[in-house]
Amino acid sequence: MQTIRIQTAQNVFIEYLPASVGDRILATLIDGVVIWSYLIIVVGILATMQIDGAWLYIILLGIPYLFYDLVSEIVMDGQTIGKKAMNIKVVKLDGTQPSIASYLLRWLIRWVDMLFSGAVAILAISVNGKGQRLGDMAAGTSVISLKRRVGLNETILPNIQENYQPVYPQVTSLSDRDVAIIKEALYVHNQSEQPDPRLIETLATKVKNVLQVESSMPPMAFLHTILRDHAYLTSQ
């Protein structure tokens, strides 16, 4: 399957697998179960309480039904309950955080994508190669898989000895996202048939600037040391 290359804020290209059509269909089905369960429960409560009023039904039923996907993706950082269950999410292809306008645009065109029981969306995703339906193409977004591509026996970091001595205690200031980017960059570099050493050099320079440290280590060794230090210090 073709991968999607996204440039992060650290100027590092990370490759992701686009979410499969099957995962997206299952996510949609899960979201359908969630929203219809909500509607049935609310209708039951209103009927039991013998509450009348079309406006109340529109507010409690119509609005959640129409705006569930849009609000969920905005609030849950590109995910709905179904997408979270399937471990997929919406991202911008330019590496920036999707804006409300991006979510709104892909939501508006969603009604076109869903024509013919979703056949339009399925065809677009299958032909596009970047996991994009029509709404994604218009918004510059895609839906990627967050599932790990490596097992525990293939992890980048070796076992850390109990008497390990950290080299850079400043690593505790790195966020989980920063560390994840370093790990992913190293993984992509190791798996690439033609790795570009400039990417690793650029990332190493960026990390040094953020931590305000100097090092004569080769970029690859420096980044591995950063990961070992972070793993050790955050586990204490």
UniProtKB/TrEMBL annotation:
It is a multi-pass membrane protein. It holds the Pfam family RDD. It comes from the Bacteria. It comes from Rhodocytophaga rosea. Residues 19-140 form the RDD domain. The keyword Kinase does not apply. This is RDD family protein. The keyword Transmembrane helix applies. InterPro entries: RDD.
